[in-house]
């Protein structure tokens, strides 16, 4: 199970549809267990790591006796040996590729002031800060004194900006949550559409909106998120000019540039990356 959840070996070794469906099933089981019971991957790693921890502890105790100020004491135990049995990290994930894609797009535009609505702070926004000032908007509070980062508390349903004022705007993995109550916003089945209208309202003529959201067979997973048919997104932002569409598919091995909507519809939980602009009137 660990190998299937943490890597893509079923796709690269066997490539069968059966294993693809099995991986999706195991991911669902893992999500349920880690939410309501216990994370089975973490539990497996803990049990595997425990004898290694004990062995290493007594070896260190023996080797360090009388030789270092960093001596072992029972009260100083901090069991983390399980890290040895987990992957080094995961780049097969929407956020990793999405955040790099959006940051590269914005840097290439030589943007000096950018506004982001609710995207990942320790990923995408952090990527941008060495290159430009970012006004970060979220419904929840944030205490920060990081250089180039300005925080504005506000709701995507009523953005604190005048019409047609933001020339560079992003909203990554956000609108799929709006209206589900997950982050403190009001429960509203039309929340995602209202959020889309607000993003379109504040975008300046000639400006660019970078949008990332789950894509594939349209479905609601309450109260986590929605998965959108890409045509739904085009309709939600019909006031704007559609520039390009890119895709991170179910395997999450990278960004498929200029992907087709048919490729997106073959996904169960892909990530659609859209660029919109607004025509000057």
Could you give the topology of this structure?
Blueprint: H1 2-6, H2 9-14, H3 17-36, H4 40-64, H5 94-108, E1 113-117, H6 121-128, E2 133-138, E3 149-153, E4 166-172, H7 191-202, E5 203-215, E6 219-221, E7 225-227, H8 230-236, E8 241-248, H9 261-265, E9 270-277
Parallel strand pairs: 1-2, 1-4, 2-3, 4-5
Antiparallel strand pairs: 5-9, 6-7, 8-9
Helix pairs in contact: 5-6
Describe the structure.
The protein is an alpha/beta fold and 281 residues long. The protein folds into three domains: 2-37; 40-84, no CATH class; 94-277, Rossmann fold, CATH 3.40.50. The chain is built from nine helices and nine strands. It has helices at 2-6, 9-14, 17-36, 40-64, 94-108, 121-128, 191-202, 230-236, 261-265, and strands at residues 113-117, 133-138, 149-153, 166-172, 203-215, 219-221, 225-227, 241-248, 270-277. Strands 3-2-1-4-5-9-8 form a seven-stranded mixed β-sheet. It has a two-stranded antiparallel sheet with strand order 6-7. Helix 6 (121-128) links the parallel strand 1 and strand 2 (133-138). It starts with a helix and ends with a strand.
């Amino acid at each position: 199970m660990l190998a299937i959840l943490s890597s893509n070996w079923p796709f690269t070794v066997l490539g069968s549809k059966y294993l693809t469906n099995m991986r999706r099933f195991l991911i669902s089981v893992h999500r349920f267990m880690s939410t309501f019971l216990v994370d089975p991957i973490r539990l497996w790693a803990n049990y595997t790591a425990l004898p290694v921890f004990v062995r290493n502890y007594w070896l260190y105790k023996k080797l360090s006796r009388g030789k270092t100020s960093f001596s072992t004491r029972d009260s100083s135990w901090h069991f983390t040996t399980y890290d040895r049995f987990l992957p080094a990290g995961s780049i097969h994930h929407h956020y990793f590729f999405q955040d790099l894609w959006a940051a590269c797009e914005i840097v290439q535009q030589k943007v000096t002031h950018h506004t982001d609505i609710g995207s990942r702070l320790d990923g995408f926004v952090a990527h941008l800060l060495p290159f430009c000032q970012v006004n970060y908007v979220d419904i929840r509070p944030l205490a920060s004194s990081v250089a180039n980062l300005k925080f504005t508390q506000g709701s995507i349903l009523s953005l604190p900006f005048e019409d047609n004022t933001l020339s560079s705007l992003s909203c990554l993995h956000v609108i799929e949550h709006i209206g589900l109550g997950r982050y403190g916003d009001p429960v509203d089945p039309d929340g995602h559409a209202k959020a889309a209208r607000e993003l379109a309202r504040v975008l300046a003529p000639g400006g660019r909106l970078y949008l990332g959201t789950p894509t594939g067979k349209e479905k609601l997973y309450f109260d986590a998120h929605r998965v959108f048919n890409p045509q739904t997104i085009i309709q939600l932002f019909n006031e704007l000019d559609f520039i390009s569409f890119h895709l991170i598919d179910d395997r999450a091995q990278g960004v498929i540039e200029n992907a087709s909507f048919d490729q997106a519809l073959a996904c169960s939980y892909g990530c659609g990356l859209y660029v919109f602009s607004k025509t000057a009137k």
